[in-house]
């Protein structure tokens, strides 16, 4: 579970209902879901690895 992603997602989603009330706030679903799931599909798609591989 990510530490920063869920709060960022919640703040962005809140922009739909408070403040500028823009539909762009729904973009906050992405960091919210990836933070709670602990997996980002974009990393797999682009082959990004954030953990070190064990040495042989």
Question: Which SSEs are present, and which pair or pack?
Answer:
Blueprint: H1 5-17, H2 29-37, H3 41-46
Helix pairs in contact: 1-2
Characterization of this structure:
The chain is built from 3 helices and no strands. By secondary structure, it is mostly helical. Helix 1 packs antiparallel against helix 2.
Structural class: mainly alpha
Shape: elongated
- Portion of residues in helices? 40-55%
Average pLDDT confidence is 85
Rg over CA atoms, rounded to whole Å, is: 15 Å
Query: SSE string, helix = H, strand = E?
Result: HHH
Strand content of the residues, in percent? under 5%
Number of DSSP strand runs: 0
End-to-end separation in angstroms reads 28 Å
**Biggest β-sheet: count, sense, barrel?**
none
Number of helices: 3
Low-confidence stretches: none
Structure described in brief:
By secondary structure, this protein is mostly helical.
What features would you highlight for this structure?
50% helix
């Amino acid at each position: 579970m990510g530490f920063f992603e869920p709060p960022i997602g919640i703040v962005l989603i809140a922009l739909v209902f408070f403040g500028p009330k823009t539909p762009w706030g729904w973009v906050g679903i992405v960091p919210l879901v990836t933070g709670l799931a602990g997996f980002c599909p974009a990393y797999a798609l682009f082959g990004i690895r954030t953990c070190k591989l064990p040495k042989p």
